[in-house]
Amino acid sequence: MGKYSEKFFVDIDFHNLMQQRITRILLVCSSYDQFTLEEDGHIEAQIVREYGDLSLTNPPTFTRVSSGFEALERLRSGERFDLIITMFNIGEMDVFTLSRKVREQWPGIPFILMSSFSREVARRVVEADTSAIDYMFSWQGNADLILAIIKMLEDRMNAREDILGIGVQAILLVEDNVRFYSAYLPDLYRIIIQQSNEFVREALNEQQRMLRKRARPKILFARSYDEAIRYYELYKDNLLGIISDVSFRRGEEPGEIDTCAGLELCRQVLGDRPTMPIVLQSTNIAHQRDAAEMGADFIHKKSKHLLRELADFINRRLAFGDFVFYDPLTGQEVARVRDLGQMQEAIEHIPTDIMTYYTARNMLSKWLYARGIFSLAHMLRAVTNSTFDSPDEMREFILGAIKGYRRQMGQGVVAEFVPETYNQFISFARSGAGSLGGKARGLAFIGNMLEEYKLYDKWDGVRVTIPRTLVLATDHFDRFIAENGLQYIQSEDMDDADILSEFTGSRLPDKVVEDLRVFLRNVKRPLAVRSSSKLEDSHFQPFAGIYSTYMVPRADNEDQMIRMLGKAIKGVYASVYYRASRAYIEASSNSLADEKMAVVIQEICGTADDGYFFPTLSGVARSLNFYPIGDEKPEDGIANIAFGLGKLVVEGGITLRFSPAYPQRVLQLSTPELMLRDTQRVMYALSLDPSKLRTSTDDAVNLTKFEIPKAARFRNMKYVASTWDALNQSVSDSPNEKGRKLITFAHILKYDTFPLAEILRDLLRIGAEEMKSPVEIEFAVNMDVPYGHEKIFNFLQIRPIAEATQRDRLDWSAPEARPEGAILYAESALGLGRIEGLRDIIYVRTGAFERSQTPQMAQEIDALNTQMKEEGLNYVLVGPGRWGSSDPWLGIPVVWPQISEARVIAECGLEDFRVDPSQGTHFFQNLTSFGVGYMTLNPFQRDGVFDAAALDALPATAETEHFRRVSFPDDLFVFVDGKNSRGIVRR
After folding, report:
1. pLDDT above 90 covers what percent of the chain?
2. Lowest mean pLDDT: which of 485-499, 803-817, 918-932, 946-960?
3. Confidence (pLDDT) at 35
4. Cα angle, residue 20 at apex, residues 14 and 26 outer, rounded to 5°
5. Which distant-in-sequence residues (6+ apart) come within 8 Å of 833 by Cβ?
């Protein structure tokens, strides 16, 4: 037998269970019986209370009538009823006549007679034709009998589909004494339902709990030998056990009682299934010996502990309650198991002979079936001890199956964080009842999507998954603000550093600290602490890159980990109130008072190497390519990947750009010259030194930047690097040769050692289909795994790309659209058409651009942008290189709020300075979401026009060391046509 695979698990759709329900009941009784029945007029309230006590949902409603004539009128009026319950005295039309009329005209409605069975009532029942009455019950004033009737009928209605179709288990009850089964059924259901409520503690959220309850074992109620045998033959593969009287009828019709019918039933069943648990019950204690001789249990009906003995039989023989491993030779308890996690631990440690004793009797699968864990139960029942070459192989198989099931059940769901039951197999959990925030919602959606499309193990040797994640919901943020009195910061004008100081000096709620401790005991890797505000990653306002993300290294000391993690969480909370965040919220027409912050805490993808932690590669991919080149089409999508942590990608550093449709056609790798000039120069890694994580508004405080030559020592380099052969002026795809290392990802993109392009194609296509819009995803890959282990593709984030419809069209052959005489003209552009109301252009002064001065230039444009905002004006912004790059050598490192009033942004190359567009970054995401016109041009290569001389000749409205603002008396003609990839600005 090979190793188990999660692909072996059969999908069980618990939504399909219990499809037929009793929701409307017609109650026929006299006014006196109604008063007696209701005990102060609250029978419906009693039923609701019974349902609530047993954690059941959807209690039925009752319609009451006082006679058989009224009942028939209601039925003839067209009202729908699922069940008719009638008392004995209902006026001139007796209950037997009413039952026949109902059977003739509405044969599908169950008809139940309830009565206190006095001698006179019993005599009349015996003499009457009761063939149209489905069941008779002895009423003693307890509402739990009505609940048992409802559940018994629902079990009968759903038995075939649920038991044979899905695998729900059943208990066969055989009894024909009205008084006895009337007292017995309510208690039996109470035992089963309460036991089932214990089982559902393993469910990860309320939805799973409700669905699991539908999987509780059913009770099949038989009143004769023939009926019992019919049930047995049909459902014997799914029977947990049988509870049977000894004396009852043989045939369906009323007749003589066979005082040994139960013994015959027991012989026949045990002859067919020797291990079937059976308990015989009788008022005749002599039958105890008969039961023992056949290997059945026995309960004396007159026992004072009848119900306790029955509950003990159900727990011990029907695999309810705890699973107890006994030594079969000594009878000594070896291990007691309450849940699946404890079962895994027990299988790891119990002696081999005890394990094989229980597997030979299929007791493990029986216990799993009773708990509604059908997929795992199916798998274990399908194998026997002889299936395996050795007991150790069987033990390995069972452990692998349990772990795989637990992992699968933890995927694609948002689990409630319960400290007592949280474990390493839960991939996504939420602490708190508030909102998850946009980023966490997207992550939860990803988990659900991966599960729905079966993408976790679609690619051999690769595990596609989300990182283990804990989300602190927004109510924790509210509590933190309130308990520490930080509300005043919302209205204060404070420096970011002062805000952070206030937050880090405050206490996290005790519940958060408690949950963090449990979470930390189940994670092994460093952690990323990321923002997930209510406004993040929503359509048209993604808030990408606005709030802080901190990375926390692992430490062996739990208290130290709590301090570092708490510091990071408070830093994320504080970033809501930072100056840049306030400006962005205001620019997006939102209110700071409405913003709430959830926090995503997740394991970082990667491995440790020489005191640093990082993945093999990180990347951003978009399903829509705004700048296709060569054979690329917009719908093919585009990806940017980098060696190391993803900070380089999302903040606009030099990365490798490729289309997932054409992974072997990479412009940057088309010539040795381009490889040397345009491939990755630096990489980021997390320092594993805890002292590096200091309180700072810079969330990258403990990230280390390495020049690629200095990163050559890292193990992951062999997966991503090629080597420059200076002697032969060529590039070798081998990373092992001597020479300068170039980050080309040749082994992945050219030789497909990792199916990155295929994975991205599928994820982008499915993501766009599911979100009904183009999407951007962030991901990380770890190939540095032990031999034989799966490589990891971590799906980190998904957000929609705002793809608004272009508002109007421009004839580009018209005079006003020609480049001659234009201030600005580009043939690489993104935008939505005509932009009106612009009279100002802010541009870098001719000859003033210095790469070493870009941080200062960012401060200057921030001041000019603030001035424009105060004047209520928008503008066209022109500058060299990448706007918003985190690498100041690639462009001016502004953050979005520093240029928030710009309505057109142009990246204009200089004669000695040309950089690719900012596609794939947080900056680019915000730019497209706000509908800002975006152009790239390189006039010195005759690719576009920028008439700086014309602007230089005009007086400046405002001027700094590096910038000029020029204002025109009339609106400029501005048109940015993303459809045709052209843009123009002219007088």
Report:
1. 53
2. 918-932
3. 67
4. 145
5. 806, 807, 808, 809, 810, 975, 976, 977
In-domain check, residue 908:
yes
Q: Quick one: pLDDT at residue 639?
A: 94
- In this structure, how many other beta carbons lie within 10 angstroms of the beta carbon of residue 973? 18
Q: What was the pLDDT predicted at 539?
A: 44
Burial code (b: 16+ CB inside 10 Å, e: under 16) for 747-760 equals bbbeeeebbbbebb
Shared domain check, 611 and 594: no
Token digits for 962? 């590096």
Helix axes 178-199, 143-159, angle to 10 degrees: 80
Beta strands in 344-489 (DSSP E): 415-416, 428-431, 462-465, 469-472
The domain total for the chain is 6
Length of the chain: 987
Query: According to the model, what pLDDT value does residue 417 have?
Result: 92
- CA 485/CA 504 separation, integer angstroms: 13
Q: Are residues 474 and 510 in the same domain?
A: yes
Over 919-936, what HEC string results?
CCCHHHHHHHHCCCEEEE
What 3-state DSSP class applies to 363?
helix
CATH code assigned at 96:
3.40.50.2300
Structure tokens at 660: 């997932």
Residues 6+ apart with CB under 8 A from 815: none
Check whether residue 511 and residue 441 sit in a common domain. yes
Q: Which residues of 241-254 are buried (b: 16+ CB within 10 A; e: fewer)?
A: bbbbbbbbbeeeee
Element of type H or E holding 481: helix 474-483
Q: Could you list the residue range(s) of the whole structural domain that residue 752 is in?
A: 606-803
Range list of H helices, 273-390 = 287-294, 306-317, 340-349, 352-360, 363-370, 374-381
Last-in-domain residue among 557, 588, 604: 604
Cross-strand bridge partners of residue 642: 618
* Cβ atoms of 563 and 690 closer than 8 Å: no
In a domain, 159, yes or no: no
pLDDT at 945 over 80: yes
Q: Which residues have a Cβ under 8 Å from the Cβ of 476 and sit 6 or more positions away?
A: 431, 432, 434, 508, 509, 511, 512, 598, 599
Give residue 261's pLDDT: 95
The DSSP-derived string for 209-251 is HHHHHTTSPEEEEESBHHHHHHHHHHHGGGEEEEEEESSEESS
Model pLDDT for residues 627-651, shown as the tens digit of each residue: 777 788 888 999 999 999 999 888 7
Strand duo 527-533 + 549-552: pairing: antiparallel
CA 943 to chain centre: 47
632, 556 Cβ separation under 8 angstroms: no
CA dist., res. 816 & res. 818, Å (int): 6
Average pLDDT, the chain: 87
Amino acid at 780: A
State the virtual CA torsion across 394, 396, 402, 403 in degrees, nearest 10. -170
* Two tokens, residue 933: 């016109």
User: Which of 269, 287, 321 marks a domain boundary?
Assistant: 321
Q: What φ, ψ does residue 755 adopt, rounded to 5°?
A: -75, 55
Smallest CA-to-CA distance from 614 within 564, 558, 566, 684 is with 684
575 and 673 share one domain: no
Band of residue 41 on the pLDDT scale cut at 50, 70, 90: very low
pLDDT at 651: 77
Provide CB contacts within 8 A for 387, sequence distance 6+.
1, 394
In a domain, 682, yes or no: yes
